[in-house]
Amino acid sequence: MESLQIEPGSVTILALINDPEVRVELVVDTVIWEATAVACHPLINTSTLVLSRSDLRRFLERVGHKPTVLELPARETHPVESAH
Asked: Which of 6, 21, 39, 83 matches a 20 to 30 Å C-alpha distance to 46?
């Protein structure tokens, strides 16, 4: 709330518009950064917008946030053991 001026549970990349001092560091997974489009909340969690890759990058340029793009490891999934 203090840094991005949005309610907990509504955190979205679009909230960076509320950080003109660029205090928040944006870290993005390579898979998301290279995606054709990204879905995100428009500052509230009751709606979803889909932004093209170019629109997302243009937005970040306009708000002055340069992302750190990292290849994050895939999350391991474990098969659920069946009860016998």
From this structure: 21
